[in-house]
Give the backbone structure.
Amino acid sequence: MMLVVGLLGVGCTLLVLGKGLPLACFCLVLFQVPTSLYFENFYDQMDSLSAVGGVLAVMFLSREVGIVRRQKKELEYLSDININGDSFSSASGSYNTL
């Protein structure tokens, strides 16, 4: 019983906070799958499967958002360099490295 409470507590807390989403997803799936297999009928198992899919979707979408934010930050940095002309070239025509 403590394992169930621990998995739910850790999984839900991390999911709500948005930190450690792979661990949150693992805890919630580890709780949900055996519970639904042992204690639920077919209809409820499919409902639980959709909940697992939702948790996985949150994890993958948040990962994609992080990638997009990082790419946006890199593009802003490169456009600042291009506008200011800091690192691409100098007056003598030689190239500087970052």
The mean pLDDT is 81. The helical segments are 2-17, 21-39, 42-84.
